[in-house]
Amino acid sequence: MTDFLAALALLFVIEGLVFAAFPAHAKKAMQSAVETPEATLRVIGIGSAVIGVLAVWLIRS
Question: How far is residue 48 from each of residues 22, 23, 24, 25, measured CA to CA in Å?
Fold first, then answer.
């Protein structure tokens, strides 16, 4: 659980840095996500989750 909370905190740090350093690009990226079809977002989300799980599994083993 500690690792999960640390990963979640790191996500907030990275996201905060992106919005602080590049606010215009972040807004443009969010607008692009809004305009992307749900099916495409779903595929990207599942692919990202699988890659993330595999990366954690490889790092931990």
Answer: 23, 23, 24, 21
